[in-house]
Design goal:
274 residues, alpha+beta, OB fold (Dihydrolipoamide Acetyltransferase, E2P), 2 domains, five-stranded antiparallel β-sheet, three-stranded mixed β-sheet
Length: 274
């Protein structure tokens, strides 16, 4: 699952534009406050316009919760399609997926399920016309998604990447620039920090430091080591065991119980297309 979440997917948007991102990146963008505002305003617009006319047949409270439920269901299907696309791209690296196709596939069951709920809540009085509603919602959703992909997601993604590059760790009460950190080795009650151009010693626990990092920042191949993604990692075998050789020629041991996790992480973050 982690491998699929971090596999870059290539897309065509509605206007033929090209873009590429991972499912994990898409998830982080969705959680950004700018995206949440856009989604909230979009749902509010749909609720106010009431394009299906359902509000005349169901209680107001049901009409209010229907749109968030529909969006959540649509988003769940959309994410499942992303994971399927990621699996296909790992087999066919040149594959580029059209977002309108993903949107249509996710929209069909969403409209059918929601219209069915409205039909039930209206005691059969709601005029059920899936085809007519599908056409309207498809073009409406595609218009909103095009605005999102063209004008919202690029800026949010850039902001997230910029924040990740300037992230800091708090070690022994001091702030450390994560982007300059290469690796950490724990020895007794201290940790030895190696940076691009310096070394330092701090009284701290490795697990507390690792807890501040994210999966894409680096890997903990051994209980006494943490290695940053930008440390120039090369897996090697020495004396029958896997080690990680870094660009400063440090040899980092890999615990036997973590070999699979380390190799999977290397494949996703160091050599994602191999």
């Amino acid at each position: 699952m982690k491998r699929l979440l971090n596999t870059e997917i290539k897309f065509w948007d509605l206007l033929g534009g090209r873009m590429a991102f991972t499912t994990a990146t898409y998830g982080r963008v969705l959680q950004h406050k700018r995206t949440l505002v856009f989604v909230s305003l979009s749902l509010l617009t749909f609720f106010a316009a009431d394009p299906s006319g359902a509000r005349n047949y169901v209680p107001l409270w049901f009409s209010m919760i229907l749109w968030p439920i529909a969006f959540s269901f649509y988003l769940l299907l959309y994410h499942l399609e992303f994971l399927l696309a990621a699996a296909l791209i790992r087999r066919i690296p040149s594959l580029r997926v059209p977002t309108p196709l993903l949107g249509f596939i996710a929209l069909v069951p969403t409209v059918i399920v929601c219209e069915s709920f409205v039909m039930i809540m209206s005691n059969g009085t709601f005029p059920y016309d899936v085809v007519k509603q599908m056409i309207f919602y498809f073009f409406s959703v595609q218009g909103l998604e095009t605005v999102f992909y063209r004008f919202i997601m690029p800026g949010v993604q850039e902001e997230i990447e910029r924040e990740q590059k300037t992230r800091q760790l708090v070690i022994d009460g001091e702030k450390i620039d994560l982007s300059k950190l290469l690796h950490i080795e724990a020895r007794e009650h201290h940790v030895h920090l190696t940076f691009e151009d310096a070394r330092s010693l701090a009284r701290a626990r490795l697990r507390d430091i690792v807890a501040q990092t994210q999966r894409e920042d680096g890997i903990q191949p051994h209980r006494s080591w943490w290695v940053a993604k930008n440390a120039g990692i090369k897996p090697e075998h020495k004396d029958g065991r896997l080690i990680l050789r870094l660009r400063d020629d440090t040899e980092v041991p890999v615990a036997r119980t973590r070999v699979d996790d380390v190799m999977s992480w290397l494949e996703n973050h160091i050599n994602p297309m191999q």
